[in-house]
Amino acid sequence: MTIFFNAFHSPLGAHSSFTLGCKGKSGGLGLEMGTPACENVYIGLQNRDDKKYSALPFYEVEESESIRYDHEGNKIETQAVLSVFYDKEINRDFKTGTDVWHVDDLTCSIYSSPVSAPDPLKSPMEDQMRAYCPAVVIELKIDNRNCANERTAFIGYNAENSSDNMNFIYNLPKGFKGIAKGRSTAMITNSDYAFAAQGFNAEAILTEKKHQNYNFGLGDTGLLLFTAPAGQESVFKIAVCFYRAGIVTSGEATSYWYSKFFDSINQVGTFALKNFEYYRQNSLEIDKDFDAPYLNDAQRFQLAHAIHSYFGSTQLLDWNHKPFWVVNEGEYRMMNTFDLTVDQLFFEMRQNPWTVKNELDMFVKRYSYTDKVHFPGEDNIYPGGISFTHDMGKNNHISRPQYSTYELFGLEGCFSHMTHEQLVNWILCAAVYIKKSDDSNWLAENMNIFEQCLESMLNRDNPDPKKRNGIMALDSSRTIDGAEITTYDSLDQSLGQARNNVYMAVKSWAAYLALAEILDKDISLTAEKQADLAGKTISSFLNEDGFIPAIMGEKCDSKIIPAIEGLVFPYVLGMNDALDTRGKYGGLLKALRTHFETVLVKGTCIYEDNGWKLSSSADNSWLSKIYLCQFVARQILKVVTPATGELSDIAHQNWLLKPENLFFAWSDQMKSGVAHGSKYYPRGVTNILWLEGKNETTIVKNGKTGSEEQESYCKKCKY
User: Fold this and answer.
1) In the 3-class helix/strand/coil scheme, how is 49-109 assigned residue by residue?
2) DSSP string computed for 626-642
3) Coil, helix or strand for 245?
């Protein structure tokens, strides 16, 4: 199992990442990108016994840029003095708050410090400055105690594929040195015995004998050089910084919230270094906070990896002096995609509930709309109601009111509208926010929205109250003569079609339960009746083969795991009675458990490698959804089998560590374990649910526990 996978190291709310870990020119300092920056990153140390240097393998050797300027063959000769450490010598300890690389006498510790986001309207300025400072800090430790020679350590990067030039920062406060790419990214240090240098490439800098040439303006590589005295251990501190000033979005004018506190990347670097110990200690505490003794190693790895990835997609903007929280959709960079918001909900409610409120308010104020509805093949003549858009924009463009960037009209497949799903998502997110925050004022302010949501759901069931069964049966007028889809937009009908879909039906049941708890008594009875109808309708479709068809009442017998997904919401909302098999909805719960146990077998919804296949008829699975359904299966349905055990966790970890997937850090959408889409993605934090309670993952098979059996898969796993 390789240790050379890319991971995000990102400040909160800055939509940026110091991505590192995959070999070659695969990482770097990326600002507002949907992929790694693909810059050479140099982290290394002078050898003990000679004047050559070794570095971690995060760069590619390239011809010197000097040949672009010298056409007479008199280019500056650069001595080959830099080589990579051998793979077998390198160790990596990857956790939620820290990523530590160790080789020979060099230890490089990256402190990502994924803190909770303080509410900008209520928190002291100092707390906001620390949390939203757009930098991550690095510690280089050089153990030179057994060496009689002074040695040089270094860290740096290049500025290729950019309109900005690499530059030596000359106007920092006394004691600070730095290199930067334009005004947008930088590495800054305040360590003693440090120099900032610029040159055509790393070797040109390392072999430069005249320090006056360290500020070479044509060079596209910058290094911070550190002198480690002989016979002692030295520690050097670096801030990796990001900055974008002024208006940063189109459609509407917003700027980064951090620009209220920092007016340049220089200020970012000096502040981060002055608070270095705070960030270091916070990262170490976070490593403990996001761990649990009952998690297996594969779970720990995936939890840490997903959290790193989520932070790289976060963006806190200043919109007319009010905060606008955005989570960008990975490689697609769509802003606040609602079907991600509902899944990231559990993480955000644990970390910073105000962000959920901020997102919900924006969906109501700017991205809600009212439609009509139609039965398949008929005209849009029936009242619909309120719903919400798929997203709020893309690539820093804030979309117009009432419209997303994704949804098109008149379609039945990918890019159609997700009207019913986003309606259900608003209800569920809002219900969880109220439950976990106890924000009675917000509830009172939005009671009319909840009432409108119930009316809208009723209309999408059936215009005739006597014919309602609790399940969506009508499509939005925004599809014209088409059909609505779900978040599983690139799947076949089994999970792609919203109408009569068992996945959507169970989420709708959960939404009705939530509305029954929130609404005033007379109206709540209607929601309660709808929940009862939905539960009975869903369970009635359990067939003699032991599963509920993916599309109920239509010609689609596909088997899907996410039929159980919606059970997570009554669990999080504390509705224990609704999840009691002896209670009112016992029939539904028993039917879903039977369904799940039937489909979770190899050849149906389990791959040969023990990974989960969300649909029996489509080779396309989302890890974030798998994590969520794993939690439901283990914690709610109490299904304890080899398929729900540690072997599945190891399979999913192995997907992320396949050679084809290493470059894109954490990715969501997988085909047979290979990232097919949704790369560089934030939604994996659904696995924060694993910390809710002990996972029943120990299984017995052939006389061995799951833990014993997994050893044959991964005896040398470092995670």
Assistant:
1) CCCCEEECCCCCCCCCHHHHCCCCCCCCCCCCCEEECCHHHCEEEECCCEEEEEECCEEEE
2) HHHHHHIIIIIS---SG
3) coil
**Could you say which DSSP state residue 615 is in?**
B
Residue type, 335: M
Residue 221: half-sphere exposure toward Cβ, Cα within 13 Å: 26
Range list of β-strands (E), 515-626: 621-622
Q: Angle at CA 614, nearest 5°, toward 611 and 618?
A: 105
Tokens of 603: 């050849």
pLDDT in tens, 618-632: 999 999 999 999 999
* DSSP 3-state percent helix, strand, coil across the chain (nearest 5): 35, 20, 40
Our CA angle for 573, 579, 582, nearest 5°, is 150
C-alpha closest to that of 567 among 647, 499, 521, 509: 509
- Over the stretch 200-246, which tens digit does the pLDDT of each residue have? 999 999 999 988 888 888 889 999 999 999 999 999 999 999 999 99
Asked if the model's pLDDT at residue 412 lies above 80, the reply is yes
Q: Is 697's pLDDT higher than 80?
A: no
- The whole-angstrom separation of Cα 39 and Cα 233 is 30
CA angle 122, 128, 133 (to 5 degrees): 160
Beta partners for residue 98, in sequence order: 111
Structure tokens at 1: 């199992």
Helix, strand or coil, per DSSP, at residue 13: coil
Domain ranges of the chain: 16-288, 290-710
Amino acid at 126: E
Tell me which residue of 444, 283, 428 sits closest to 349, measured CA to CA: 428
Instruction: Please state, in angstroms and rounded to a whole number, the distance separating the CA atoms of residues 676 and 669.
Output: 6
Locate the DSSP E strands across 483-624.
621-622
DSSP state of 478: G
For 290-710, the fitting CATH number among 3.40.80.10, 1.50.10.10, 3.40.30.10, 3.40.605.10 is: 1.50.10.10
- CA 47, CA 52: separation in Å to the nearest integer? 6
3-state secondary structure of 500: coil
d(CA 235, CA 277): 13
Q: What are phi and psi of 569, to 5 degrees?
A: -75, -50
The continuous run of DSSP H or E covering 195 comes out as strand 194-199
Dist. CA 166–CA 185, nearest whole Å: 10
Contacts of 693 (CB under 8 A, 6+ apart): 635
For 221-240, what is the HEC assignment? Answer: EEEEEEEECCCCEEEEEEEE
